[in-house]
Amino acid sequence: MITSSGSAPSPRRRSEKSRRATLTAALELCAENGYGKVTIEAIAARAGVSKKTIYRWWPTKGAVLLDAVTELVVSHSEFPDTGDIDVDLRTHIGMLVNLFNSTVMGPAYRGILSQVLHDEQLARAVNDELVIPRVALVYERMRGAQEQGQLPPDADLPLAVEMLYGPLYYRHALGRPMPDPEHVETLVAHVMRALRSPERS
């Protein structure tokens, strides 16, 4: 096809359009039918691309959905820096709760988490592409708060991150209701109080 300017469309632009269509199709199918019923064939048909195109970029449907979920998390759960670490944690955790509750991301990520028990390659990808970078983001924000004196210099920040975010993944993986805003506020308050307690060992 030739554009009105007389030049052929950029291959890079065509590739990005196909990639986006594939990610959108995968999320839609997962929301409609559940992770287990999603196939590469169905994704290709919905996206209007060939199976060969999909396999050129992703080895499995889990990899497709992981890319889609990662993009959602990165674009919809920024970590603010208002100067108040407690407020920022409540905001960030609230954003993640909304994502886990959404029909767009919720079923896809739950399916991925179930699949990592049987797929070592996907498990590594989940950690390398999603979990580790996001944990590092939270850790660095808390380090900044520590340097500003909002947290004790000897606070165990990696443990704090697990205490704050572990309950979300536990609930999501088991299909339990996500915490409401009041519960999120209580969670952050309890963890921050434990970090600041002069009696902690």
Provide tags for this entry.
201 residues, mainly alpha, Tetracycline Repressor, domain 2, 9 helices, disordered N terminus, HTH-type_TetR-like_transc_reg, Tet_transcr_reg_TetR-rel_C_sf
Fold and architecture overview:
The protein has helices spanning 11-33, 40-47, 51-57, 61-76, 85-101, 106-115, 120-147, 157-173, 181-196. It is an all-alpha fold and 201 residues long. It has a domain at 61-196: Tetracycline Repressor, domain 2. Helix 1 (11-33) crosses helix 4. The protein is elongated and about 60 Å long. The N and C termini lie far apart (69 Å).
Cα end-to-end separation: 69 Å
Global structural class: mainly alpha
Summed over residues and divided by their number, the pLDDT gives a mean of 91
Largest sheet: none
N-to-C order of helices and strands = HHHHHHHHH
CATH topology of the domain at 61-196: Tetracycline Repressor, domain 2
Give the C-alpha Rg: 20 Å
Tell me the β content. Answer: under 5%
Beta strands, count = 0
The percent range for helix content is over 70%
Shape: elongated
| Low-confidence sequence ranges | 1-9
